[in-house]
Amino acid sequence: MNIPMLCIALLALLVFALGFAVSITRGRTKTGIGHPDDPNNFVHKMVRCHGNAVEYAPALMLLIYILSQTDSPGWVMWLMVLVTVARYLQVVGMVFSGTLAKANPFRFMGSLGTYVGGMGLTIALLMHV
Description:
The protein is an all-alpha fold and 129 residues long. The chain contains four helices and no strands.
């Protein structure tokens, strides 16, 4: 199994699935554009969830792809998996929380995994410079 390509595919799937979910949510709520500035509002949550995914997934996918083309140590592969799982945890924490105004364990773990894993992948890439 090609783990890096699987991680890239799962991150891309996340971005496109969330974009589709935003469109469905807008249709159901008759919200053409924008969203209420209410952290309890489901349209707001979905838009922010998709936005958050789009903020991180492209950079992570690029790092994963480039590192997959190098002779990297085994811990790099684990970081690829970690950041992918972290992005999904972030989504779970945002979509299924009652409000975005309060932190929850899934969002915390998703954020922490994204930051630590993303920085680790960046350091791994810098080691090849």
